[in-house]
Write a structure and sequence with these properties.
By secondary structure, the chain is of the alpha+beta class. The protein has one domain. Helix content is 38%, strand content 22%. Strands 1-2 form a two-stranded antiparallel ribbon. The protein has a two-stranded antiparallel ribbon with strand order 3-4. α3 runs antiparallel to α4. The longest helix is centred in the last third of the chain and has 30 residues. It is elongated.
Length: 166
């Protein structure tokens, strides 16, 4: 390669903008900090892929909620043990700055609604799942998710307080 071409390449390399790559919660970013991130790029999604198989909507959280969300995934996975019971996140949403995390269990754990159409008085009966007739599993997961959302709110408040102090 000629000296002129080498010199031109060096000049163009030197004038090109340089981006520092860093890892932020499992997502490689070039510059700045994205305030919202897709959780499928977090370590939780890599460690617990079954939780992210069938979303119905977005799976996004605020960046400062990633520790709370990852901890919630760890707790749910430990609680479920070997048999994951079809657990998956359906939608993770941010409404008015608050976390809203929706999940479901497999079909074996769904409740059924039986509608009796009588001529005089129609009625509906909810039949509990045979796999979890007392809703113990569902209530335990509901409690873990509620705790995770409270953690996320706390981390969000702490982050905004730290920003205000600077």
């Amino acid at each position: 390669m000629s000296h002129k071409k080498q010199s031109a390449i060096r000049k163009s390399e030197n004038s090109a903008p340089h981006y520092t790559k860093r890892w932020d919660g499992g997502v490689e970013v070039n510059t700045g900090l994205a305030p919202i991130q897709d959780v499928r790029f977090l370590c939780a999604a890599i460690n617990y892929p079954y939780m992210f198989e069938n979303p119905l909507g977005d799976l996004t959280i605020e960046r400062n909620w990633s520790a709370a969300f990852t901890l919630t995934c760890m707790e749910i996975d430990a609680f479920l043990g070997q048999y994951k019971r079809g657990f998956c996140w359906r939608q993770l949403d941010i409404e008015d700055g608050q976390p809203h995390w929706y999940w479901s269990l497999g079909q074996d754990y769904d409740h059924q609604v039986l509608v009796a159409e009588l001529a005089t008085l129609p009625s509906a009966v909810i039949v509990m799942s045979a796999s979890d007739p007392k809703d113990e599993l569902r209530n335990a997961i509901r409690a873990l998710v509620a705790t995770g959302m409270r953690r996320a709110k706390f981390f969000s408040q702490e982050a905004s307080n730290a920003g205000a102090m600077q």
